[in-house]
Amino acid sequence: MLLRAPAVGFRVANGRVNERDFEKWARETQAVSGDGTPYATDVEAAALASAAQAAAIANASSALATHVAAPDPHPQYLLTAEGNAAYVSQTSVLNGSATYDPPSLADAVGVTTTVTVTGAALGDFALASFSLDLQGIAVSAYVSAADTVSVRFQNESGGTLDLASGTLRARVWKL
pTM of this prediction? Predict the structure, then answer.
């Protein structure tokens, strides 16, 4: 038996051929005898489909094995600088925290407080977070002096907000 079929690539997920790919293949495929006369039985069609599925699974398994065996394309990620891309070493990330109870803030009013982050220096990158819902208050951070991160709470919500006491965290990245 010969197979006259369009070129159809089968996508494989969880060891199974994608149904739409198979349906397209089944619609567009004709089994023909040696003299070109079309014929196919359910058994023959099932055998062809099973062979196609097995081939697709084998191809996917081979591709997965190749991918898993390949070396990590980013072995220096978070460890070194390479080319023009700067990666941050875990040793250059500094953290600090403090309990803070922000005062009641009317709309368009802000307050600034500080968090000690040992090793922080002017020019380092800083980020802050608060352990409670900010309810529309914007928080920003910057290194304002050696070992000190200033954190600004700015209310632009349109109303007065009074946050409860929570944990204020500051993180600094040294480059």
Answer: 0.52
